[in-house]
Amino acid sequence: MTDFLVRALGAGLMLALVCGPLGCFIVWRRMAYFGDTLAHSALFGIALGILLEINLQLSVITLCSVIALLLVVMERNKGLASDTILGILAHSSLALGLVTLSFTGTRIDLMAFLFGDLLSVSYSELLWMLGGGIAAIGILLWYWNRLLAITLNQELAQVEGLNVTRLRLLLMLVMAIVVAGSMKIVGILLITSLLIIPPAAARNFAKSPEQMALGSSVIGALAVIGGMSASWFWDTPTGPSIVVAAALLFVLSTTLRRA
Question: What's the predicted TM-score (pTM) here?
Fold first, then answer.
């Protein structure tokens, strides 16, 4: 197997492993729109990076982290639902990004951020993904029970003495950093799909939150392998092929459950 396939497979499998448990929290908290919100805010981050002449990856990660912080703050307003808040943040950041780009006078290829290029992952990028993925998994394992408690019953978790706001902020920041950090490499399409489709498929047969998280990672890994195989043999786009494979696995799991 050629080197670029090994690097792409390693990056894809690490992403699937991290997105499995993270995606479960998105499904449980009904925040499927969160990934799209980060995608919109990424444009603002790119525009600011160009305008201020700073590293674009750092600018995107910072902006996505700020969006996560704003979401936690705005969720305290009980009069607004989460999807409404996400819609406000998504379209506001998109508009700000377009306005900021008009001041830079620069034309950029946003397709690279939308679809990425998994097959072009370098060794240095792979090492960054491995390091970041291991750190994210470590945080999730350390705080798993507490994050699960605030997700299942926030009021009860607060009565038990858990700092709900801090834990929610931690979860949002981990999601934002994982999405923003991998956006240029694999594209926002692949990241958001791996955050939503595998957990939805795993939910069809999981009997506990832990089973759902593990099953989600396994399904995500199978989607990466299947999509990359299709891309290799049939010369199809790698990212969309992985998304199609994940969607087929979701259909299969739903069919088996009904059967």
Answer: 0.89
